[in-house]
Amino acid sequence: MAKKLIKVMDTSFRDGFQSVYGARVFVDDFLPALKSATEAGIKHFEVAGGARFQSPIFYCNENAFETMDKIRAAVGPDINLQSLARGVNVVGLDSQPRDMINLHAKLFKKHGVTTIRNFDALNDVHNLIYSGQCIKDNGLKHEVTITMMELPIGCTGAHDVPFYERVLRNILDAGIPFDSIAFKDASGTSAPRKVYETIKRTREILGSEAHIRFHSHETAGTGLAAYLAALDGGADGIDLAMKPVSGGTAQPDIVSMWHALKGTEYDLGIDINKILETEEIFKECMKDYFLPPEALAVNPMIISSPLPGGALTANTQMMRDNGVMDKFPEVVAAMKEVVEKGGFGTSVTPVSQFYFQQAFNNVMFGAWKKIAEGYGKMVLGYFGKTPCEPDSEVVKIAEEQLGLAPTSELVVDLNDKDPNKGIKAATKMLEDAGLEVNEENIFIAGACKEKGIMFLQGKGQIGVRKNCPAAPACSAEGNEFTVKVNGKAYAVKLDGDKATVNGKSYDVSVKAGIEKLAASSGAGEDVKAGVPGNVLRIEASVGDSVSEGDVIMVLEAMKMEIEVKAPKSGTIQSIAVSQGDKVVTGQTLAVIGG
User: Fold this and answer.
1) Are 6 and 237 in contact (CB under 8 A)?
2) What are the pLDDT digits (tens) for 390-438?
3) Which residues 6+ apart lie within 8 Å of 549 measured at CB?
4) What angle do CA 586, 312, 388 make, to 5 degrees?
5) Angle at 192 between CA 190 and CA 195, to 5 degrees
6) What is the C-alpha to C-alpha distance for residues 121 and 86, in angstroms, rounded to an integer?
7) DSSP assignment of 376-430, as one string?
8) What is the pTM of this model?
9) End-to-end CA distance of the chain
């Protein structure tokens, strides 16, 4: 009897990178593996969108559109290249107006994408209507998506089979055009039996011709079992990855899945020996990258605190960067309450990031003392309707802290009225910065905001973690040094009064240092960093008069903007940091004189 051919999408070069390396990978490093996978017979890859739009810009100093062009050139014209979009959020954490949503589809088509998997983390179908139409209107295939997870232990109210059926029927009733449908479990927590029943019911509703795909992770240890359940329920396609970005926080491995299907009615249609050869090439490509130990682990705690693989390593990378990795177990444990009180939006970007940010704040500042902006806007309705009503007390706290009233207005309608969003606002950002105005730059500015502008100005930074060979704490050759601080290597080059550290220039003149010391040695009050992070914006200048509570600068930590406010009224005597600098807790940022 002929076996059923299961269609495989290789997620190694998008979700695999996000789940293992926080998406911080240089494009030229992995192209040999991508070419080998193509030659091995794989015809469908996920390569763009999700964190692989912002991360090249934020951490690799690479233009995400240019990386997409390189990928298309590497695989040729006939390969199905897929991207991941977050409904009205497209490829950012913040939601967008209609003009930016359409520009996203237009540009991704232009830069080689064939198919866009489109989801809404709240499963609010209103957020898929316009985004899905734009995908089709711009000549792309639309894979409409329902997001899945398991509720924390002891919770009920959503994320069961009847819930997913309601979402599916809402998609059909809304008339959203789609070429295929996916069920995406970013945390890998869905019970296999639930997966089976969900896919089976979907097949009954859509009929035999519909293409149904299932996506999960091994984070909670049940990924392979869930995939087998999905196939038995009637799925046509599954997402798999290759070593070194498979298993653990990422997708099940292609070879492991091939092995698990031996003796069954299913066939992946691959040449296993060629895949094994490609995995070796891939391992060689990635051999210099730091592989976080948590990326390889199965963590049963995730079942009750559903943290997706893609968010897990992305956040642990940031926690390492900010020197707070010791807080990770506490943050994961705090997620259970955050998920429960947030209304059970699926733990997938951007909601997974909102959950993590709020759990991080609850650990660092005390429970519900500081509402993360994204989480607060979510419970107030600014990203759509959550599956269940959020906790009323949390809603009240968010309303007070953010100064926003709850809303039930459509997200795209809200964003269309926001003067700080959209093509016009992004164009102004470019013009104010003296940058070229074109569609790619407009989208980068709109999706990445200040950090996108800094990148386009040539001020992008490198935040890629690669393993360094054994080296002393400081080595030097001429005026070029390798300095190792807290286990991290820095390339330092001295040239007169200038020092270049990892590509960024600093003034190190003795005169400047003395002037800064003199300015800060008066009878002023130090303004110190309350959390580690990066200086995103400086809102005040030396000599400015400020009142108590005025915002002096804004830090970015864990993808959150944290305002640094004046502790008293006075005059800014000195500012000790520059835009883009990394700061630690307790570091003096500025001095205010009486």
Assistant:
1) yes
2) 999 999 999 999 999 999 999 999 999 999 999 999 999 999 999 999 9
3) 565, 566
4) 105
5) 70
6) 7
7) HHHHHTBTB--SSPPPHHHHHHHHHHHT-----S-HHHHHHT-TTSSHHHHHHHH
8) 0.84
9) 86
Q: How many angstroms separate the CA atoms of 299 and 187, rounded? A: 11
Residue 54 to residue 83: CA distance in whole angstroms: 13
The C-alpha atoms of residue 235 and residue 196 are separated, in whole angstroms, by 9
Q: Which of 135, 96, 61, 181 is nearest to 463 (CA)?
A: 61
Chain position carrying tokens 């050139």: 73
- Where exactly are the structural domains of the chain? 4-305, 468-508, 510-593
Question: Could you tell me the two tokens for 561?
Answer: 């903007």
Give the per-residue SS3 of 68-132.
HHHHHHHHCCCCEEEEEECHHHCCCCCCCCHHHHHHHHHHHHHCCCCEEEECCCCCCCHHHHHHH
> What is the rounded CA–CA span in Å between residue 549 and residue 249?
42
**How is the chain split among helix, strand and coil, in percent rounded to 5?**
40, 20, 40
Predicted pLDDT of residue 507? 60
- CA atoms within a 13 Å half-sphere pointing along the CA-CB vector of 329: 2
Tokens found for residue 224: 């392979």
CATH architecture of 510-593: Beta Barrel (2.40)
HSE-CB for 302 with a 13 A CA cutoff: 31
Q: How far is CA 363 from CA 299, 329, 368, 375, 561, in A?
A: 20, 10, 9, 15, 17
Task: Name the CA dihedral angle for 573, 577, 578, 581, rounded to a multiple of 10 degrees.
Answer: -170
Q: Which amino acid is at 590?
A: A
CATH topology of domain 4-305: TIM Barrel (3.20.20)
Alpha-carbon gap, residue 4 to 208, rounded angstroms: 13
